[in-house]
Amino acid sequence: MSAGLEIGGAPVLELRATDVSVDGPAFLEVQVLPGRGMMLLQAKLRLPSGRIVDGLHAPDPGTAAEALSGGPDDFNGDKSFSFGGAILLPYANRIPGRRMADAREVEAEIAGRPIRLPRNWGAAPGRDDYAMHGLILASAFEYQQPAPGVAVGRLAAGDFGRGWPGSADIEVAWSLAGGRLSLAVTVANRGPEPLPIGIGWHPYFALPSGDRARARLRLAAGLRVEVDNYEDVLPTGRLLPTRGTNYDFSAAAGVTLGDRYLDDCFTDLARTDGVAEARLVDPAADLVLRIASPSPAIKAMQVYAPPDEAFVVLEPQFNLADPYGVAWPRGLDTGMAIIEPGGSIGYRALVEALDLRRVR
User: Fold this and answer.
1) Whole-prediction pTM value?
2) Is 63 exposed, middle or buried (0-12, 13-18, 19+ CB in 10 A)?
3) Which residue among 81, 87, 315, 329 has its CA within the 20 to 30 Å range from the CA of 134?
4) Where do the domains of the chain lie, and which CATH numbers do they carry?
Protein backbone atom coordinates (compact mmCIF):
# COMPACT_ATOMS: atom_id res chain seq x y z
CA MET A 1 0.00 0.00 0.00
CA SER A 2 2.94 2.37 0.66
CA ALA A 3 5.94 0.25 -0.34
CA GLY A 4 9.10 2.29 -0.85
CA LEU A 5 7.53 5.55 0.31
CA GLU A 6 9.40 7.61 2.90
CA ILE A 7 7.99 10.40 5.04
CA GLY A 8 10.34 12.45 7.17
CA GLY A 9 13.27 10.41 5.88
CA ALA A 10 11.88 7.11 7.17
CA PRO A 11 9.58 4.46 5.71
CA VAL A 12 5.89 4.14 6.46
CA LEU A 13 5.65 1.22 8.89
CA GLU A 14 2.65 -1.04 8.39
CA LEU A 15 1.47 -3.02 11.40
CA ARG A 16 -0.90 -5.91 10.84
CA ALA A 17 -3.00 -7.76 13.38
CA THR A 18 -2.47 -11.50 13.32
CA ASP A 19 -4.79 -12.56 16.13
CA VAL A 20 -8.20 -11.07 15.34
CA SER A 21 -11.41 -13.04 15.05
CA VAL A 22 -12.81 -13.67 11.59
CA ASP A 23 -15.76 -11.34 12.04
CA GLY A 24 -16.92 -8.38 14.10
CA PRO A 25 -15.42 -4.89 14.43
CA ALA A 26 -11.64 -4.75 14.73
CA PHE A 27 -8.57 -2.74 13.85
CA LEU A 28 -6.72 -4.76 11.23
CA GLU A 29 -3.79 -2.62 10.09
CA VAL A 30 -2.16 0.70 10.97
CA GLN A 31 0.48 2.94 9.42
CA VAL A 32 3.09 4.57 11.67
CA LEU A 33 5.49 7.36 10.69
CA PRO A 34 8.77 7.14 12.65
CA GLY A 35 10.06 10.10 10.63
CA ARG A 36 7.27 12.27 12.01
CA GLY A 37 7.29 11.77 15.75
CA MET A 38 5.92 8.19 15.56
CA MET A 39 2.53 9.58 14.62
CA LEU A 40 -0.24 7.33 13.36
CA LEU A 41 -1.17 8.00 9.75
CA GLN A 42 -4.03 5.56 9.21
CA ALA A 43 -5.85 2.68 10.89
CA LYS A 44 -7.85 0.20 8.84
CA LEU A 45 -11.04 -0.73 10.65
CA ARG A 46 -13.47 -3.56 10.03
CA LEU A 47 -17.03 -2.50 10.77
CA PRO A 48 -19.73 -4.74 12.28
CA SER A 49 -21.03 -5.17 8.73
CA GLY A 50 -17.69 -6.61 7.65
CA ARG A 51 -16.82 -3.61 5.47
CA ILE A 52 -13.25 -2.34 5.87
CA VAL A 53 -12.82 1.43 6.09
CA ASP A 54 -10.32 4.08 7.09
CA GLY A 55 -10.64 4.51 10.83
CA LEU A 56 -8.87 7.86 10.85
CA HIS A 57 -9.41 11.05 8.91
CA ALA A 58 -6.20 11.23 6.84
CA PRO A 59 -5.03 11.43 3.23
CA ASP A 60 -3.37 8.58 1.37
CA PRO A 61 0.37 8.16 2.10
CA GLY A 62 1.47 9.91 -1.09
CA THR A 63 -0.61 13.00 -0.35
CA ALA A 64 0.47 12.88 3.28
CA ALA A 65 4.12 12.85 2.20
CA GLU A 66 3.59 16.11 0.32
CA ALA A 67 1.87 17.72 3.31
CA LEU A 68 4.50 16.50 5.79
CA SER A 69 7.44 17.83 3.82
CA GLY A 70 8.51 20.75 5.99
CA GLY A 71 7.04 23.40 3.70
CA PRO A 72 5.72 26.83 4.75
CA ASP A 73 2.50 25.31 6.13
CA ASP A 74 4.45 22.67 8.03
CA PHE A 75 6.49 24.91 10.33
CA ASN A 76 7.42 23.00 13.49
CA GLY A 77 5.70 19.96 11.97
CA ASP A 78 2.23 21.54 12.24
CA LYS A 79 0.70 19.36 9.53
CA SER A 80 1.23 16.34 11.79
CA PHE A 81 -1.76 17.38 13.89
CA SER A 82 -4.06 18.13 10.94
CA PHE A 83 -4.91 14.45 10.33
CA GLY A 84 -4.08 10.94 11.55
CA GLY A 85 -2.90 10.82 15.15
CA ALA A 86 0.10 12.86 16.30
CA ILE A 87 1.85 12.41 19.64
CA LEU A 88 2.15 15.66 21.59
CA LEU A 89 5.15 16.15 23.85
CA PRO A 90 6.54 17.79 26.06
CA TYR A 91 3.23 19.69 26.18
CA ALA A 92 -0.18 19.31 24.62
CA ASN A 93 -2.35 22.22 23.55
CA ARG A 94 -1.41 25.89 23.64
CA ILE A 95 1.31 27.83 25.44
CA PRO A 96 1.25 31.60 24.82
CA GLY A 97 4.16 33.85 25.66
CA ARG A 98 6.04 37.03 24.85
CA ARG A 99 6.37 37.39 21.09
CA MET A 100 10.00 37.51 19.95
CA ALA A 101 10.95 40.08 17.34
CA ASP A 102 14.05 38.25 16.08
CA ALA A 103 12.50 34.81 15.46
CA ARG A 104 9.20 33.01 14.98
CA GLU A 105 9.07 32.24 18.68
CA VAL A 106 7.41 33.12 21.94
CA GLU A 107 9.14 33.23 25.29
CA ALA A 108 7.14 31.43 27.97
CA GLU A 109 7.88 30.58 31.56
CA ILE A 110 8.22 26.82 31.98
CA ALA A 111 8.64 25.60 35.55
CA GLY A 112 10.04 28.99 36.52
CA ARG A 113 12.45 29.23 33.58
CA PRO A 114 12.09 31.40 30.44
CA ILE A 115 12.03 29.11 27.38
CA ARG A 116 11.76 30.17 23.76
CA LEU A 117 9.21 28.01 21.94
CA PRO A 118 8.14 27.90 18.29
CA ARG A 119 5.36 30.39 17.53
CA ASN A 120 3.42 27.98 15.36
CA TRP A 121 -0.29 28.65 15.84
CA GLY A 122 -2.89 31.40 16.16
CA ALA A 123 -6.48 32.35 15.64
CA ALA A 124 -6.21 33.26 11.99
CA PRO A 125 -3.88 32.61 9.03
CA GLY A 126 -0.69 34.61 9.47
CA ARG A 127 -1.43 35.23 13.14
CA ASP A 128 0.74 32.76 15.03
CA ASP A 129 0.53 33.90 18.63
CA TYR A 130 1.49 30.86 20.68
CA ALA A 131 3.23 27.52 20.81
CA MET A 132 1.06 24.53 19.97
CA HIS A 133 1.23 20.77 20.56
CA GLY A 134 4.82 20.21 21.54
CA LEU A 135 8.29 19.83 20.08
CA ILE A 136 8.46 16.35 18.47
CA LEU A 137 5.94 16.72 15.63
CA ALA A 138 8.66 16.54 12.97
CA SER A 139 11.23 14.54 14.95
CA ALA A 140 12.76 11.40 13.44
CA PHE A 141 12.78 8.41 15.79
CA GLU A 142 15.02 5.38 15.67
CA TYR A 143 12.67 2.47 15.21
CA GLN A 144 12.21 -1.28 15.26
CA GLN A 145 9.38 -3.51 14.14
CA PRO A 146 9.91 -6.63 16.26
CA ALA A 147 6.62 -8.27 15.22
CA PRO A 148 3.99 -7.73 12.50
CA GLY A 149 1.70 -5.92 14.94
CA VAL A 150 4.30 -3.92 16.88
CA ALA A 151 6.44 -0.83 16.24
CA VAL A 152 8.77 0.77 18.77
CA GLY A 153 10.48 4.14 18.36
CA ARG A 154 13.08 5.90 20.51
CA LEU A 155 14.30 9.47 20.63
CA ALA A 156 17.00 10.98 22.82
CA ALA A 157 15.28 14.37 22.90
CA GLY A 158 17.45 15.92 25.62
CA ASP A 159 16.29 19.49 26.12
CA PHE A 160 14.39 19.41 22.78
CA GLY A 161 16.90 21.91 21.41
CA ARG A 162 15.16 24.60 23.44
CA GLY A 163 16.81 24.53 26.85
CA TRP A 164 13.81 22.66 28.27
CA PRO A 165 14.57 21.59 31.86
CA GLY A 166 15.80 18.03 32.33
CA SER A 167 16.90 15.63 29.61
CA ALA A 168 14.21 13.47 27.99
CA ASP A 169 14.56 9.99 26.55
CA ILE A 170 11.33 8.98 24.81
CA GLU A 171 10.02 5.57 23.85
CA VAL A 172 6.82 5.13 21.82
CA ALA A 173 5.27 1.71 21.24
CA TRP A 174 2.29 0.99 18.97
CA SER A 175 0.67 -2.42 18.94
CA LEU A 176 -2.27 -4.25 17.41
CA ALA A 177 -3.59 -7.18 19.43
CA GLY A 178 -6.98 -8.81 19.47
CA GLY A 179 -8.34 -6.15 17.13
CA ARG A 180 -7.41 -3.39 19.60
CA LEU A 181 -4.98 -0.55 19.01
CA SER A 182 -2.74 0.52 21.86
CA LEU A 183 -0.24 3.31 22.39
CA ALA A 184 2.38 3.38 25.13
CA VAL A 185 4.70 6.35 25.67
CA THR A 186 7.44 6.35 28.28
CA VAL A 187 9.59 9.38 29.09
CA ALA A 188 12.69 9.02 31.25
CA ASN A 189 14.72 11.88 32.67
CA ARG A 190 18.46 11.41 32.14
CA GLY A 191 19.33 14.91 33.31
CA PRO A 192 20.39 16.33 36.69
CA GLU A 193 17.29 18.51 37.22
CA PRO A 194 13.52 17.84 37.23
CA LEU A 195 11.83 17.43 33.84
CA PRO A 196 8.34 18.97 33.38
CA ILE A 197 6.31 16.93 30.93
CA GLY A 198 2.90 16.92 29.33
CA ILE A 199 1.91 14.13 26.94
CA GLY A 200 -1.07 13.90 24.62
CA TRP A 201 -2.35 12.10 21.56
CA HIS A 202 -4.34 13.79 18.77
CA PRO A 203 -6.35 11.14 16.82
CA TYR A 204 -8.90 12.14 14.18
CA PHE A 205 -11.48 9.37 14.51
CA ALA A 206 -13.49 9.07 11.31
CA LEU A 207 -17.25 8.53 11.31
CA PRO A 208 -17.61 5.77 8.67
CA SER A 209 -21.24 6.61 7.93
CA GLY A 210 -20.43 10.28 7.34
CA ASP A 211 -23.50 11.10 9.46
CA ARG A 212 -21.99 13.62 11.90
CA ALA A 213 -25.35 14.94 13.11
CA ARG A 214 -26.39 11.55 14.54
CA ALA A 215 -23.02 10.75 16.10
CA ARG A 216 -22.98 10.50 19.88
CA LEU A 217 -20.29 11.23 22.45
CA ARG A 218 -20.00 9.75 25.92
CA LEU A 219 -17.48 11.41 28.20
CA ALA A 220 -17.99 11.50 31.95
CA ALA A 221 -16.14 14.59 33.18
CA GLY A 222 -17.07 16.85 36.04
CA LEU A 223 -15.44 20.03 34.76
CA ARG A 224 -14.84 21.93 31.53
CA VAL A 225 -12.15 24.52 30.88
CA GLU A 226 -13.73 27.86 30.06
CA VAL A 227 -12.02 29.55 27.09
CA ASP A 228 -11.95 33.11 25.83
CA ASN A 229 -13.44 32.17 22.44
CA TYR A 230 -13.36 29.41 19.83
CA GLU A 231 -10.72 31.20 17.78
CA ASP A 232 -7.88 31.56 20.29
CA VAL A 233 -9.24 28.78 22.60
CA LEU A 234 -7.17 30.05 25.53
CA PRO A 235 -8.27 29.33 29.10
CA THR A 236 -9.78 32.07 31.25
CA GLY A 237 -8.64 30.26 34.40
CA ARG A 238 -12.12 29.03 35.31
CA LEU A 239 -13.21 25.40 35.50
CA LEU A 240 -16.96 25.10 35.01
CA PRO A 241 -19.19 22.21 36.16
CA THR A 242 -20.60 20.19 33.26
CA ARG A 243 -23.53 18.54 35.02
CA GLY A 244 -26.85 19.60 33.52
CA THR A 245 -25.23 21.85 30.90
CA ASN A 246 -24.79 21.57 27.14
CA TYR A 247 -21.36 20.09 27.92
CA ASP A 248 -22.69 17.17 29.93
CA PHE A 249 -21.88 14.04 27.91
CA SER A 250 -22.14 11.59 30.80
CA ALA A 251 -25.30 9.78 29.67
CA ALA A 252 -24.66 6.04 29.33
CA ALA A 253 -25.78 5.98 25.69
CA GLY A 254 -23.89 9.17 24.87
CA VAL A 255 -25.27 12.53 23.76
CA THR A 256 -26.07 13.33 20.13
CA LEU A 257 -23.68 15.91 18.68
CA GLY A 258 -26.18 17.38 16.23
CA ASP A 259 -24.80 20.63 14.85
CA ARG A 260 -22.84 21.67 17.92
CA TYR A 261 -19.22 22.79 17.59
CA LEU A 262 -16.73 21.60 20.16
CA ASP A 263 -13.15 22.57 20.84
CA ASP A 264 -13.21 22.01 24.58
CA CYS A 265 -11.05 20.52 27.28
CA PHE A 266 -12.72 18.34 29.90
CA THR A 267 -11.17 17.44 33.24
CA ASP A 268 -12.15 15.81 36.54
CA LEU A 269 -12.53 12.63 34.50
CA ALA A 270 -14.61 9.81 35.96
CA ARG A 271 -12.71 6.54 36.28
CA THR A 272 -13.89 2.96 36.62
CA ASP A 273 -11.28 0.67 38.20
CA GLY A 274 -8.77 3.43 37.52
CA VAL A 275 -9.61 3.71 33.82
CA ALA A 276 -10.85 6.90 32.18
CA GLU A 277 -12.67 6.53 28.90
CA ALA A 278 -14.66 8.21 26.15
CA ARG A 279 -16.97 6.59 23.62
CA LEU A 280 -17.75 7.78 20.12
CA VAL A 281 -20.88 6.23 18.63
CA ASP A 282 -21.72 6.13 14.91
CA PRO A 283 -25.28 4.70 14.93
CA ALA A 284 -25.57 4.50 11.15
CA ALA A 285 -22.52 2.19 11.10
CA ASP A 286 -23.47 0.27 14.28
CA LEU A 287 -20.03 1.28 15.56
CA VAL A 288 -18.76 2.29 18.98
CA LEU A 289 -15.16 3.41 19.45
CA ARG A 290 -13.96 3.15 23.03
CA ILE A 291 -10.92 5.25 23.92
CA ALA A 292 -9.57 4.32 27.35
CA SER A 293 -6.56 5.03 29.53
CA PRO A 294 -5.40 3.66 32.88
CA SER A 295 -2.69 6.33 33.22
CA PRO A 296 -3.35 8.42 36.34
CA ALA A 297 -1.34 11.33 34.91
CA ILE A 298 -3.94 11.82 32.17
CA LYS A 299 -5.96 14.66 33.65
CA ALA A 300 -7.89 15.88 30.62
CA MET A 301 -9.63 15.01 27.38
CA GLN A 302 -9.72 17.61 24.60
CA VAL A 303 -12.60 17.22 22.16
CA TYR A 304 -12.47 18.86 18.73
CA ALA A 305 -15.60 18.28 16.65
CA PRO A 306 -16.49 20.74 13.88
CA PRO A 307 -20.07 20.12 12.70
CA ASP A 308 -19.22 20.16 8.99
CA GLU A 309 -16.66 17.34 9.21
CA ALA A 310 -17.16 13.57 9.52
CA PHE A 311 -14.60 13.14 12.29
CA VAL A 312 -14.22 13.73 16.01
CA VAL A 313 -10.85 14.31 17.65
CA LEU A 314 -10.59 12.86 21.16
CA GLU A 315 -7.30 13.72 22.86
CA PRO A 316 -6.34 12.09 26.18
CA GLN A 317 -3.67 14.34 27.65
CA PHE A 318 -1.79 15.17 30.83
CA ASN A 319 -2.10 18.94 30.86
CA LEU A 320 -4.66 21.66 30.41
CA ALA A 321 -3.96 24.44 27.91
CA ASP A 322 -1.47 27.12 28.97
CA PRO A 323 -0.48 25.08 32.04
CA TYR A 324 1.85 27.76 33.42
CA GLY A 325 -0.44 30.66 32.57
CA VAL A 326 -1.17 33.42 35.10
CA ALA A 327 -4.92 33.03 34.53
CA TRP A 328 -4.99 29.82 36.55
CA PRO A 329 -5.54 30.08 40.31
CA ARG A 330 -2.31 29.72 42.25
CA GLY A 331 -1.70 26.14 43.33
CA LEU A 332 -4.08 24.55 40.80
CA ASP A 333 -2.75 21.31 39.29
CA THR A 334 -2.86 21.99 35.56
CA GLY A 335 -1.49 18.57 34.66
CA MET A 336 2.19 19.01 33.88
CA ALA A 337 3.99 16.07 35.46
CA ILE A 338 7.44 16.40 37.00
CA ILE A 339 9.97 13.61 36.40
CA GLU A 340 12.78 13.67 38.92
CA PRO A 341 16.33 12.85 37.76
CA GLY A 342 16.58 9.15 37.03
CA GLY A 343 12.80 8.73 37.03
CA SER A 344 10.24 8.08 34.30
CA ILE A 345 6.54 8.38 33.57
CA GLY A 346 4.16 6.49 31.29
CA TYR A 347 1.21 7.35 29.07
CA ARG A 348 -1.17 4.62 27.90
CA ALA A 349 -4.15 4.73 25.55
CA LEU A 350 -6.24 1.90 24.12
CA VAL A 351 -8.80 2.05 21.30
CA GLU A 352 -11.23 -0.76 20.58
CA ALA A 353 -14.13 -1.06 18.18
CA LEU A 354 -17.43 -2.46 19.43
CA ASP A 355 -20.68 -3.49 17.80
CA LEU A 356 -23.36 -1.05 18.90
CA ARG A 357 -25.98 -3.79 18.70
CA ARG A 358 -24.11 -5.76 21.38
CA VAL A 359 -23.21 -2.90 23.72
CA ARG A 360 -25.32 -2.57 26.82
Assistant:
1) 0.97
2) exposed
3) 329
4) 6-358 (2.70.98.10)
